[in-house]
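Request: Have a read of the protein record below and say how the chain folds.
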Amino acid sequence: MSRPDRLFDRALLARRRNRALSGGRRGADFLMKIAVEDTLDRLSAIKRTFDVAIDLGGHGGLLAASLRTTPAVGSVVRADSLVADPSAGGPDLVVDEEALPFADGSADLVISLLQAQAVNDLPGLFVQVNRVLRPDGLFLAVMAGGDTLHELKGALTAAEAELIGGASPRCHPSLDLQDTAALLQRAGMAIPVADVDRYTVRYSVLGDLVADLRAMGATNVLAGRDRRPLPRSVLARAEEIYRDLHADPDGRLRATFDLIALSGWRPHESQQKPLKPGSAKTRLADALGATEQPAGEKAPGRDPSKT
């Protein structure tokens, strides 16, 4: 039984991810491929080496395999909550992302792809990652947030309200871009950066979108979810609403995925720090090539009385 103060049922999440890996729906890992490619691009722009890297929760093994062929990365530890992984031989270490077992300062790089959005204590996870990193170590993450699947959420809510008279929690709440960046800073990380990329995927029918979400292990694992199956009448009505609001002229349905990319560093004395107020050595007027006017003095210009 899930604890009442927990938003996500983590045991159910692990089971569904295991089931997803054994299902093998072709092409359903497109979001993970996008996240891996984006992360490797960001990593390639950083001119330094990382002796020890942790792939935190990268089910499927795609990130770990890519890191092991990256010259700037030394040893890679693939840590996952999944016990079995037929597609990639299993993780190096079975962990719970909410209670990291790594020693303080044991890694130079920690990467989490498409996992953190289903962690109950996201601020706590960031604090733990900061602890695990060595000084000047790097944390990279990609997570679903923003307006991800807003079309599906709206259609399901409207259909349930219309046919049943109320709506139960069917879709996960979305993370906000600014909030996630602020959480990195609160966790003690330096130079926090967050940005978002939007991807629109089109489907012939709503069932294909649902099948992809199942194949990703990304279906509803809310602890407070309604355990009863959604009636077929509600699903049919949801597709009608979805089609009315979010279909292209060719009849295909649009689905939005917003991927938030985060980066933060374990503080180190070598990192750039903001200047203290009043410490600037160049006047703004000099930098702009302008004439500085004392406070209260009228700047030279046209006299309106002579026009």
